[in-house]
Design goal:
It is built from 13 helices and nine strands. By secondary structure, the protein is an alpha/beta fold. α6 packs parallel to α7 and α11 packs parallel to α13.
Length: 354
Amino acid sequence: MKAIFGLLLITLLPLSKTNDPGDNVLINHIQVIGSHNSYKKAIDPRLFKMLQKADSVSMSKIDYSHISLTDQLNLGLLDLEIDVYADTAGGKYAHPKGLDWVRGQPAYDTEGVMKQPGFKVFHIQDIDYRSNCLTFKQCLQELKKWSDAHPDHHPIFITMNAKDEPMKNPGYTVPDKFTSSIYDKLDKEIADNLGTDHLITPDKVRGNYKTLEQAVLHQNWPTLKEAKGKFIFLLDETSPKTDVYIAGHPSLKGRLLFTNSEPGTPEAAIHVMNSAKKDLAQIKELVKKGYIIRTRADSDTQEARANDKSSFNAAMQSGAQIISTDYYKKSGHFKSDYVISFEGGKYFRMNPLF
């Protein structure tokens, strides 16, 4: 009996090893969970209460916050979202108007970094302005420090919004528009603070193919081994913002960020489809073709308040490689048991479609 058991064990061990994907899996054959507006700190309770009285519905949608980028990476999250505002001259966002609306709020930007030129990181001008890293440079340096301490980490996706929309109501700070030259500075900021050797870029994925999309459709993504210790950036915008970033860079030649481009265009590689329930079949089809799809498990705190995981279940089933959530931990803003992770509390797994 012992001999039979031993023979079975010897037979099964190689099977277990075979089922382990190892380093040769392409990065579009995995599925990861990450955070939405990853930098965001809570609005000060006094200011939040004042704003809530004016518009309780809108404020309920932004009633969440996150731990530091480092702490999120330590948990195992593999997708972060960083919003940037251009501030070429410096000082545009150094004193948000919300600071003057309610007394007794904590000090803001005690080191004066918001007075310096460069990209700033926060959610909504004058209202939701507290961030775990106030400048993009600080965020990138934090990512670099963590990456250097964990050189064999899986590739980390960084989703970015180029924020330049004015508020609907007058009186708020009006952002600078993103131009081609400002996008050049954004690329340079990433290169200067992370280093291009830490990046998976459109050029590297495109290789010798004529267009980036052709490379993607031929499964020319790097393997996990090739992507160790690297970051892959996505500009989560649509036309005309993406048009400005692409202009002069067909198939994103020379650019550092991928763009949220529609399948069928030369720049198509990573695409954002945030409604997995509605677009389940289409997401599956695109993933199988080779595109990387980003979707969301929840938005505007709605799923968390209702403890509704149907969107997350659809996201997992769809094969979308990047699933974003505000709730890798339970909410500290309202009572709910809603928490998002894969089985076993993990944030990385093999893609079910492969």
